[in-house]
Amino acid sequence: MIRRIVVSLVIAVTAVVHCSAQEIMVPDQISTPVFSRSDSQKKVSLSTDVVAVALPAAALAGTLILRDWQGLKQGVFTALVAGGATLILKYSVHERRPDFSNYHSFPSGHSAVTFATAAYIQRRYGWKFGAPAYALATYVAWGRVYARKHHWWDVVAGAAIGAGSAYIFTRPWATRHCVSIVPATDGRNMGIVASMTF
Protein backbone atom coordinates (compact mmCIF):
# COMPACT_ATOMS: atom_id res chain seq x y z
CA MET A 1 0.00 0.00 0.00
CA ILE A 2 2.72 2.45 1.03
CA ARG A 3 4.83 1.55 -2.00
CA ARG A 4 1.90 2.30 -4.30
CA ILE A 5 1.39 5.68 -2.68
CA VAL A 6 5.09 6.54 -2.91
CA VAL A 7 5.28 5.39 -6.54
CA SER A 8 2.15 7.41 -7.42
CA LEU A 9 3.64 10.53 -5.83
CA VAL A 10 6.95 10.15 -7.65
CA ILE A 11 5.17 9.54 -10.98
CA ALA A 12 2.94 12.61 -10.51
CA VAL A 13 5.85 14.92 -9.67
CA THR A 14 7.98 13.54 -12.50
CA ALA A 15 5.13 13.91 -15.01
CA VAL A 16 4.51 17.55 -14.10
CA VAL A 17 8.20 18.45 -14.26
CA HIS A 18 8.77 16.43 -17.46
CA CYS A 19 5.73 17.79 -19.28
CA SER A 20 6.57 21.37 -18.37
CA ALA A 21 10.12 20.89 -19.68
CA GLN A 22 9.18 19.15 -22.94
CA GLU A 23 10.01 20.78 -26.22
CA ILE A 24 6.80 19.91 -28.08
CA MET A 25 5.92 22.32 -30.86
CA VAL A 26 2.43 23.08 -32.06
CA PRO A 27 2.35 23.79 -35.81
CA ASP A 28 2.23 27.50 -36.48
CA GLN A 29 1.35 29.43 -39.63
CA ILE A 30 4.01 32.05 -39.02
CA SER A 31 7.73 31.58 -38.57
CA THR A 32 8.93 30.93 -35.03
CA PRO A 33 11.14 33.66 -33.57
CA VAL A 34 14.52 32.51 -32.28
CA PHE A 35 15.35 33.08 -28.62
CA SER A 36 18.82 32.59 -27.19
CA ARG A 37 19.26 32.32 -23.41
CA SER A 38 22.16 33.97 -21.63
CA ASP A 39 24.45 31.83 -19.47
CA SER A 40 22.80 33.10 -16.29
CA GLN A 41 19.33 32.27 -17.66
CA LYS A 42 20.52 28.74 -18.51
CA LYS A 43 21.93 28.25 -15.01
CA VAL A 44 18.83 29.59 -13.32
CA SER A 45 16.64 27.38 -15.52
CA LEU A 46 18.68 24.32 -14.56
CA SER A 47 18.57 25.21 -10.87
CA THR A 48 14.77 25.54 -10.98
CA ASP A 49 14.58 22.07 -12.54
CA VAL A 50 16.71 20.68 -9.70
CA VAL A 51 14.68 22.39 -6.95
CA ALA A 52 11.38 21.27 -8.54
CA VAL A 53 12.51 17.65 -8.10
CA ALA A 54 14.57 17.98 -4.89
CA LEU A 55 11.94 19.79 -2.78
CA PRO A 56 9.19 17.16 -3.23
CA ALA A 57 11.78 14.39 -2.81
CA ALA A 58 12.93 15.93 0.48
CA ALA A 59 9.32 16.28 1.67
CA LEU A 60 8.65 12.65 0.76
CA ALA A 61 11.81 11.48 2.53
CA GLY A 62 10.96 13.48 5.65
CA THR A 63 7.42 12.14 5.71
CA LEU A 64 8.66 8.56 5.37
CA ILE A 65 11.36 9.01 8.02
CA LEU A 66 8.71 10.30 10.43
CA ARG A 67 6.43 7.37 9.45
CA ASP A 68 3.65 9.90 8.97
CA TRP A 69 1.29 7.71 6.94
CA GLN A 70 -1.63 10.12 7.18
CA GLY A 71 0.64 12.93 5.98
CA LEU A 72 1.88 10.71 3.14
CA LYS A 73 -1.68 10.14 1.98
CA GLN A 74 -2.40 13.87 2.13
CA GLY A 75 0.79 14.60 0.18
CA VAL A 76 -0.14 12.11 -2.53
CA PHE A 77 -3.61 13.63 -2.92
CA THR A 78 -2.07 17.10 -3.06
CA ALA A 79 0.44 16.03 -5.74
CA LEU A 80 -2.16 14.25 -7.86
CA VAL A 81 -4.61 17.16 -7.84
CA ALA A 82 -1.93 19.81 -8.43
CA GLY A 83 -0.29 17.76 -11.18
CA GLY A 84 -3.57 16.82 -12.82
CA ALA A 85 -4.96 20.36 -12.81
CA THR A 86 -1.69 21.72 -14.18
CA LEU A 87 -1.49 19.20 -17.01
CA ILE A 88 -5.13 19.66 -17.99
CA LEU A 89 -4.65 23.42 -18.22
CA LYS A 90 -1.31 23.15 -20.05
CA TYR A 91 -2.84 21.03 -22.79
CA SER A 92 -6.08 23.04 -22.91
CA VAL A 93 -4.86 26.64 -22.93
CA HIS A 94 -1.95 26.39 -25.43
CA GLU A 95 -0.20 29.59 -24.37
CA ARG A 96 3.14 30.17 -26.09
CA ARG A 97 6.20 30.34 -23.86
CA PRO A 98 8.19 33.60 -23.80
CA ASP A 99 11.17 31.72 -25.27
CA PHE A 100 8.94 30.45 -28.12
CA SER A 101 9.91 26.80 -27.40
CA ASN A 102 6.34 25.43 -27.24
CA TYR A 103 2.73 26.17 -26.33
CA HIS A 104 2.67 24.80 -22.76
CA SER A 105 3.37 27.95 -20.78
CA PHE A 106 0.18 28.22 -18.71
CA PRO A 107 0.31 27.34 -15.84
CA SER A 108 3.84 26.73 -14.56
CA GLY A 109 4.26 23.09 -13.56
CA HIS A 110 7.43 23.90 -11.64
CA SER A 111 5.59 26.52 -9.57
CA ALA A 112 2.64 24.19 -8.99
CA VAL A 113 4.91 21.39 -7.75
CA THR A 114 7.08 23.54 -5.50
CA PHE A 115 4.23 25.57 -4.00
CA ALA A 116 2.19 22.40 -3.43
CA THR A 117 5.17 20.94 -1.60
CA ALA A 118 5.85 24.12 0.39
CA ALA A 119 2.21 24.47 1.45
CA TYR A 120 2.07 20.77 2.35
CA ILE A 121 5.20 21.06 4.50
CA GLN A 122 3.95 24.23 6.19
CA ARG A 123 0.45 22.89 6.87
CA ARG A 124 1.67 19.50 8.06
CA TYR A 125 4.88 20.35 9.93
CA GLY A 126 4.67 24.07 10.66
CA TRP A 127 6.43 27.26 9.65
CA LYS A 128 9.81 26.07 10.92
CA PHE A 129 10.05 23.86 7.83
CA GLY A 130 7.48 25.68 5.72
CA ALA A 131 9.27 29.05 5.53
CA PRO A 132 12.43 27.66 3.83
CA ALA A 133 10.23 25.59 1.51
CA TYR A 134 8.24 28.70 0.52
CA ALA A 135 11.53 30.54 -0.07
CA LEU A 136 12.64 27.79 -2.48
CA ALA A 137 9.25 27.77 -4.21
CA THR A 138 9.41 31.54 -4.64
CA TYR A 139 12.90 31.21 -6.14
CA VAL A 140 11.57 28.64 -8.61
CA ALA A 141 8.71 30.94 -9.64
CA TRP A 142 11.09 33.87 -10.10
CA GLY A 143 13.58 31.68 -11.96
CA ARG A 144 11.01 30.41 -14.45
CA VAL A 145 10.14 34.00 -15.38
CA TYR A 146 13.79 35.09 -15.44
CA ALA A 147 14.74 32.16 -17.72
CA ARG A 148 11.88 33.14 -20.06
CA LYS A 149 10.13 29.80 -19.67
CA HIS A 150 6.96 31.46 -18.28
CA HIS A 151 5.11 34.74 -18.02
CA TRP A 152 4.52 36.08 -14.52
CA TRP A 153 0.85 35.07 -14.62
CA ASP A 154 1.84 31.47 -15.42
CA VAL A 155 3.83 31.14 -12.20
CA VAL A 156 1.14 32.89 -10.14
CA ALA A 157 -1.48 30.45 -11.47
CA GLY A 158 0.84 27.49 -10.85
CA ALA A 159 1.50 28.68 -7.30
CA ALA A 160 -2.23 29.09 -6.64
CA ILE A 161 -2.99 25.60 -7.97
CA GLY A 162 -0.21 24.01 -5.94
CA ALA A 163 -0.82 25.83 -2.67
CA GLY A 164 -4.58 25.52 -3.07
CA SER A 165 -4.30 21.76 -3.51
CA ALA A 166 -2.20 21.45 -0.35
CA TYR A 167 -4.55 23.66 1.64
CA ILE A 168 -7.50 21.51 0.60
CA PHE A 169 -5.97 18.13 1.43
CA THR A 170 -3.53 18.81 4.25
CA ARG A 171 -4.94 18.76 7.76
CA PRO A 172 -6.22 20.48 9.81
CA TRP A 173 -7.90 22.70 7.22
CA ALA A 174 -9.60 19.91 5.25
CA THR A 175 -11.06 18.35 8.40
CA ARG A 176 -12.34 21.59 9.89
CA HIS A 177 -14.16 22.62 6.72
CA CYS A 178 -15.57 19.21 5.71
CA VAL A 179 -14.04 19.26 2.24
CA SER A 180 -15.44 16.65 -0.11
CA ILE A 181 -14.24 16.06 -3.68
CA VAL A 182 -15.85 13.22 -5.65
CA PRO A 183 -16.14 12.20 -9.29
CA ALA A 184 -19.56 12.67 -10.91
CA THR A 185 -21.21 11.57 -14.15
CA ASP A 186 -24.63 11.79 -15.76
CA GLY A 187 -23.93 9.03 -18.28
CA ARG A 188 -22.67 11.32 -21.04
CA ASN A 189 -20.42 13.76 -19.18
CA MET A 190 -17.83 13.34 -16.47
CA GLY A 191 -16.66 15.83 -13.89
CA ILE A 192 -15.72 16.51 -10.30
CA VAL A 193 -18.00 17.82 -7.58
CA ALA A 194 -16.43 19.71 -4.68
CA SER A 195 -18.13 20.93 -1.52
CA MET A 196 -17.09 22.42 1.77
CA THR A 197 -18.54 24.26 4.75
CA PHE A 198 -17.44 27.71 5.85
Q: Could you please describe the fold and organization of this structure?
A:
It is a single chain. The protein is mainly alpha-helical. Helices cover 66% and strands 6% of the residues. It has a two-stranded antiparallel sheet. A hairpin with a 4-residue loop joins β1 and β2. The longest helix is centred in the first third of the chain and has 27 residues. The radius of gyration is 17 Å and the shape is flat. The two termini are 33 Å apart.
Along the chain, the helix and strand elements come as: HHHHHHHEE
Give the averaged pLDDT, no decimals: 82
Largest sheet: 2 strands, antiparallel
Shape: flat
Which parts are unreliable, with pLDDT below 50 for 5 consecutive residues or more?
20-26
Distance between the termini: 33 Å
- Could you say which structural class the secondary elements and strand pairing correspond to? mainly alpha
Strand content: 5-15%
- The count of helical stretches stands at 7
Q: Evaluate the radius of gyration.
A: 17 Å
Fraction of residues in helix? 55-70%
For the largest beta sheet, what order do the strands appear in spatially?
1-2
How many DSSP-defined strands? 2
Short description:
The protein is 66% helix and 6% strand.
Describe the structure using short key phrases.
198 residues; mainly alpha; 7 helices; flat
SSE diagram, text form:
Layout: H1 2-21, H2 39-65, H3 69-93, H4 109-125, H5 127-146, H6 152-169, H7 173-176, E1 180-185, E2 190-195
Helix pairs in contact: 1-2, 1-3, 2-4, 2-5, 3-4, 3-6, 4-5, 4-6, 5-6
